[in-house]
Structures are given as structure tokens and as C-alpha cells.
Design a protein that fits this description.
By secondary structure, the chain is of the alpha+beta class. Helices cover about 45% and strands about 20% of the residues. The chain has 9 helices and 10 strands.
Length: about 230
């Protein structure tokens, strides 16, 4: 076990409430992993290797239909986990995971992790709290698809990517993957982005960077309230 492994676990939101002996048990089983950009980490239907915790980089988690069409479920950045639901539930991987950039992770292998859950009551309680936050995140994704139109979904994504400051930012993933995540076509994504720029809510800079110009109006749009243009 290295200091880097401990740092990755301690900065993970899913394990943020795990302390003391429970944390030490997780750290003792953790295995460092590195993946090159484009490398497949696991495939849909594979036995679940365990819980992955991302230390740096980004992982793309997606479903693939029999006809080859893909839908991006979510992007996993530093401090987040993936395959945790399959590891806890004891079922096979429900989706593909691929490194969207060079990525470092730690893996909590399925069997020792499951054993820890069976034997450590406090760990189970702490992870139940974390699962509640994950369910709330999934409800937010469903709200995006069901209750927001293309402009509202994109506005919310831009606000999350921009953060609280006014500095330029770049989108961390390819537009086609972001469009898939928002349940949009690439054409609709690009057309909506141009619309937001034309209406003065954002600015597109050289090199693909973006800047939010009217944050309050963009937030209203994300909430389904259309600002006066």
C-alpha cells in the first residue's frame, strides 16, 4: 500500500464517511491501476472486478445496443467511483468502462470488498449514506432527460463544467460523448451550443474554450425558466 493509494481513497466522495479501521481495511486491499486513453477497463457482461476509484483522468461509462449504438451513462472524474453498484449487488458489469484520457485508479477487488461488507457493520452503514447520494444523482439525470429540453440540459452541463468562477473552461470530453450523455444527437448539441452563444449566454473562444457570460440567465434556462433575450 502506497501513500498515493491512501490519497486516492481519502479524496473519494463515495468513501468520504469511512474512517478508522474500516478505512484501513479498504486501503489494505486496494490495488493501483493505470489505463491508457481509449483502453477498455471492462465490458458489459464481464464479471465485476470490484470497485474502482479514480485518482486522475476520466472514465467513460456507456451502454452499447446490439446494433452498435452507444449511450454514455456518465463520466467518472477524479474523486469518483464506478462499478460500485455491481460490486455491492454481486452482479456482472451492466455497462462498458473506457478510459477517456490517461487514467490512474485504485481497485477494491470484489471478493475482499464483499467480505468487508459482510463483516464490518459500520462500513455498511457508512456506504449506505454514500449510496443515498448516488441515487439522488441518478434522479437528477432522469430529471434532465424527462423534464428539460436540449437547451436546459446543455445549460446545466455548462454550469457544472464552468464552476463558480468566470474563467474560460473547456469541456472535458468529446462533444459526441457529451451529446450522448445528454440524450441528444451531435447535431442538436452543436446547434444548441451555437444558439446559446448567439443569444449571448456564453462565448466560444479560440481553441475550443468557452466562457459563461450571463450565469443567472443560464441557470434559469437550466431550471426550465427561459430568460428574456
Amino acid at each position: 500500500m502506497t501513500d498515493a493509494v491512501r490519497d486516492i481513497l481519502s479524496s473519494c466522495r463515495f468513501f468520504a464517511r469511512v474512517r478508522g479501521r474500516s478505512f484501513e481495511r479498504l486501503a489494505a486491499m486496494a490495488l493501483p491501476k493505470r489505463f491508457d486513453k481509449g483502453e477498455v477497463i471492462f465490458r458489459q457482461g464481464d464479471p465485476c472486478p470490484g470497485v474502482y476509484v479514480v485518482g486522475s483522468g476520466t472514465v467513460r461509462v456507456f451502454k452499447r445496443a446490439p446494433n452498435g449504438k452507444e449511450h454514455v451513462l456518465h463520466f467518472v472524474d477524479a474523486g469518483l467511483t464506478f462499478a460500485e453498484v455491481a460490486a455491492i449487488g454481486g452482479f456482472d458489469c451492466p455497462a462498458f468502462a473506457e478510459a477517456a484520457s490517461a487514467t490512474s485508479c485504485v481497485l477494491l477487488p470484489r471478493e475482499p470488498f464483499a467480505r468487508a461488507l459482510r463483516e464490518d457493520h459500520e462500513l455498511c452503514l457508512q456506504l449506505m449514506e454514500s449510496m443515498a447520494f448516488w441515487v439522488r444523482h441518478l434522479v437528477g439525470l432522469m430529471e434532465d432527460i424527462v423534464l428539460r429540453d436540449a437547451a436546459g440540459r446543455l445549460a446545466r452541463l455548462l454550469l457544472e463544467a464552468a464552476g463558480p468562477g468566470a474563467e474560460p473552461f473547456t469541456l472535458a470530453s468529446l462533444k459526441k460523448d457529451l451529446a450522448s450523455h445528454l440524450n441528444l444527437t451531435s447535431e442538436t448539441f452543436s446547434r444548441t451550443l451555437k444558439r446559446l452563444e448567439r443569444e449571448g449566454l456564453i462565448e466560444q473562444l479560440e481553441g475550443g474554450a468557452l466562457r459563461v457570460l450571463r450565469r443567472d440567465d443560464l441557470r434559469d434556462l437550466a431550471d426550465g425558466l427561459y430568460p428574456t433575450m
